[in-house]
Amino acid sequence: MLYRFREAQSIELGLSKPKERRPHLASQARTLDDAEKWRRDVIREISRNVSKINDASLPEAHIRDLNDEINKLLRVKNHWDDRVLELGGPDYKKTGPKMIDHQGKQVPGNRGYKYFGRAKELPGVRELFESQAIQTTKSKRNNRAELIKHADAVYFGYSDEADDGELLEYERQATEKRMLKL
Fold it and tell me: For 55, which of 37, 83, 152, 169 is 20 to 30 Å away at the CA?
């Protein structure tokens, strides 16, 4: 109680600023500085939640809730990124960090729902990742097999002469010229 009184007193005396709340909509930010400030605020909140989700003592339900909150904050961050760009600021979507997988490769289609920290080890999520890995390896094999199946003599260039006869005519003229020179 005393803390609140002291805080209100310092605000009245001009010693500190009142705490501002982040606007619900990014479009309510009127200046570039405000938009960047609120974007940084969202990033701070995301990093706090990501560090919380790695706590070993958290129950599954809390981990799921934290992961949902992080995904919601990522969508909010995208709205702030768009607003910063509208107000003439840098394009953070192009210059920002990219999502990488467990092997350190950039994930190509990383849009949508993401899993962080211990949320990757939850019972339903682990099976999801395993099934996605199996599907990608099967699709790579199928694509390669399909390509080889459709490669024929035309692909390797063995039937160029039969196409229009132009090459054969050129070869005949070239051999006649050589015969005349001999």
Answer: 37
CA 64 – CA 147 distance, rounded (Å): 42
Contact 26, 37 (CB under 8 A): no
Phi, psi of 101, deg, nearest 5: -90, -170
User: Which residues are CB-neighbours of 116 under 8 A, at least 6 positions away?
Assistant: 50, 53, 66, 67, 70
Question: What radius of gyration do the chain's Cα atoms show?
Answer: 31
pLDDT in tens, 139-164: 666 677 677 777 777 666 676 555 66
- Would you tell me the crossing angle of helices 32-53 and 60-86 to the nearest 10 degrees? 160
Query: What are the start-end ranges of the H helices in 20-165?
Result: 32-53, 60-86, 92-95, 123-150, 153-156, 161-164
For residue 91, the one-letter residue type is D
From the list 76, 75, 73, 88, the residue with the least C-alpha distance to 30 is 88
Cα–Cα distance for residue pair 134/124, rounded to 1 Å: 16
Q: HSE (CB half, 13 Å, CA atoms) of 180? A: 6
**Do 121 and 60 meet the contact criterion of CB atoms below 8 Å apart?**
no
pTM over 0.70: no
Tokens of 2: 């005393």
| The two structure tokens encoding residue 164 | 């229009």
